Amino acid sequence: QAKRKPAFGSVGRRIPYRILHVINQDGESLGNMHRAEALRLMDEHGLKLVLLRENVEPPVYRLMTGQQIHEEQLKRAEKKKASPKPGVVQKELTFSSAIAKNDLETKIKQITVWIEKKHHVKITIRQAK
């Protein structure tokens, strides 16, 4: 069974690693430290620890406010929405505003075929000179 990547968010106090690389909420590196020291910093400043990169030695965590975590989750969701899903074909057609009637009908037929095949269709209309 494939291991699912955890969603971006606060990891709370469940940190499986002894030594962490910690970044503060302003993006400045605080260096490597023991997890107890990172938890103490988290409690002192009222922040949350978030895992950024797990596949490096030591893993990188960042101290963030709840607002920063929320904004980052929104950014990631927007990026995921913008990228086409695997297995979904996206087709694109560009029309000129001065397109002839028979050319328009031909392109409409092609779009209909793509939609029936469940492709995503993107249409761009350019203004004629």
TrEMBL record:
Gene Ontology biological-process entries: mitochondrial translational initiation; ribosome disassembly
An MF annotation (GO) of this entry: ribosome binding
One CC-aspect GO term: mitochondrion
Ranges where the Translation initiation factor 3 N-terminal domain occurs: 11-78
InterPro entries: T_IF-3_C_sf, T_IF-3_N_sf, Translation_initiation_fac_3, Translation_initiation_fac_3_N
Domain of life: Eukaryota
Entry-linked Pfam families: IF3_N
Assigned keywords, A-Z: Initiation factor, Protein biosynthesis
Family assignment from sequence similarity: Belongs to the IF-3 family.
Designated name of the protein: IF3M factor
Organism whose genome encodes this protein: Sylvia borin
Lineage: Eukaryota, Metazoa, Chordata, Craniata, Vertebrata
Gene name of the record: Mtif3
